[in-house]
Amino acid sequence: MSSVVASEKPTSNTMGPKEVELILVKEQNGVQFTSSTLVAPTLTQTNPSGEEERETWGKKIDFLLSVIGFAVDLANVWRFPYLCYKNGGGAFLVPYLFFMVIAGMPLFYMELAVGQYNREGAAGVWKICPIFKGVGFTVILISLYVGFYYNVIISWALFYLFSSFTGELPWVHCNNTWNSPNCSDWADNNSVSDIYKATPAQEYFERAVLHIQDSNGIDDLGRPRWQLTSCLAVVIVLLYFSLWKGVKTSGKVVWITATMPYVVLTVLLLRGVTLPGAIDGIKAYLSVDFLRLCDAKVWIEAATQICFSLGVGFGVLIAFSSYNKFSNNCYRDAIITSSINSLTSFFSGFVVFSFLGYMSYKHNVALDKVARDGAGLVFVIYPEAIATLPGSSVWAVIFFIMLLTLGIDSAMGGMESVITGLIDEFKCLHRHRELFTLFIVVATFLISLFCVTNGGMYVFTLLDHFAAGTSILFGVLIEAIGIAWFYGVDRFSDDIEEMIGHRPGKYWRLCWKFVSPCFLLFMVVVSFATFNPPNYGSYTFPPWANMLGWCLAMSSMTMVPLYAIYKLCTLPGKFCDRLAYAITPETEHHLVDTGEVRQFTLHHWLVV
């Protein structure tokens, strides 16, 4: 009996290439029997065009947790609850939910769908309308800029975490080497509004962590502090090993980083509601003042919160969804993840205000004396409240682990946007993802060093003010116009139907074409009209710093016109021909040669 083994690879298959092992068995009587088995391929899978097949998420839940982890970040804890309290309590939910429905969810859905259908990063997806590829580079740059300072917040949380492993927390008293004569315990200082007084927790953050007392301003930065530099290095290492192998590794990391905050928030809420004064704090958080809805500023702040809380415009949602399977139900994912994000913001308000109510009760001051947003809430007020609890070190460790996990997966999302966007645009980087990821994280680390100097808080404030403010609103506006108007809502709806089996309803199409672009245009105008120069406390930034900030913001926004000009100049033919090629999807360029350009017809612009 003899056998022959042959291996055959089909040239194309919708399910991907497979190796077929054929075993021929010859019996003694001359009769041959053939059996075959499928063997997993040992080489990298390729598609019919010879390119590598795109990596996909190991499990659907990996994608959902990654999106939730990115969208749910520190701002859900330190900004939304304060906005709700300041702007009419429960009444603030009216404008918030209104803008969520007409703009937040439609834009969230749009980004998930365009990334999943085209299976490219933020720049590569614009093969649907090449002239708009500049907006892809805009959002990539914005994500890169945000990484320069966002990682610093995580390093602060890590510093506090290490400092919490002690019998007595270091921000309890005023008898430390870093304290100034102005330091005063709450118990010894009833006039908490006195600007010349500072609590131990406030001085710990500003003088022990930031060392801002050793700097006179942004033009006097000093050297990087080795303690914060070490924490920043740890954060960078964590990010690298979470991202270096792509979604196969990051999809596993988010099982911890995306779920841990919910566990900790629940534990903190159970502890918070048992504290005296907690119920008063929660009542203040939920108190309804519908008269506040007559104030235009309340609506503007609700719209701004929606724009930034969902994470649209950073290229992250496009990058994450590009690793989905083609038939994944991105509509359901958009509804689930955007809803979870908003519910998390609302839920975290109960946690925050239960402790703020406790602080108000304990120190016998009005709630508005302790309620604040931003870094002051999570690095001053909350640590101060925790320090008064029995077993304060344990609660501090738990709290800062939550901040660490909240920050890490959001930072991972921003980095993935940059990495995916660039390696999809420059295919030669695909084979060197590990090295390119290392290059990005090291470059981010080096720039971030400016934020961990004595005057680093000034650099941080400048970046926070300019890197992703007006520029992100502008980017999403151009993105919405490019997809809904130039590519076309009808064509985009056909793409979605091809993926999930049904077209989006008229509500979604109307939002994409009219409501969301008008909303974003309004926000861009308001952003310019209400612009205020940055400041930190009483410090006012010099004119050159503001100019530098505007250059940073404009550097990302100018990618849109610069690339459009470049595209029009490099295409062959007359101007009309170049324009036709620039606004027509690359897959339809053959139609341009025959004069069939959809965008040159009235029907294209009127159809919904």
Q: Can you walk through the features of this model?
A:
This protein is mainly alpha-helical and 608 residues long. It has 2 domains: 62-185 and 196-560, Up-down Bundle (Amino acid/polyamine transporter I), CATH 1.20.1740; 571-607, no CATH class. The chain is 61% helix and 4% strand. The protein contains 24 helices and 5 strands. It has helices spanning 60-71, 74-78, 80-86, 93-118, 133-163, 200-209, 226-243, 247-257, 260-272, 278-286, 296-309, 316-321, 330-363, 375-387, 392-425, 433-448, 456-466, 470-500, 506-529, 543-557, 559-570, 575-583, 589-593, 602-606, and strands at residues 2-8, 19-26, 32-39, 535-536, 539-540. A hairpin with a 5-residue loop joins strand 2 and strand 3 (32-39). It is globular. The termini are far apart.
Q: Could you name the CATH class of the largest domain?
A: Mainly Alpha
The helical percent reads 55-70%
Global geometry: globular
Oligomeric category: single chain
| Widest sheet: strand ordering | 1-2-3
Average pLDDT metric? 88
- CATH architecture assignment of the largest domain: Up-down Bundle
Number of DSSP-assigned strands: 5
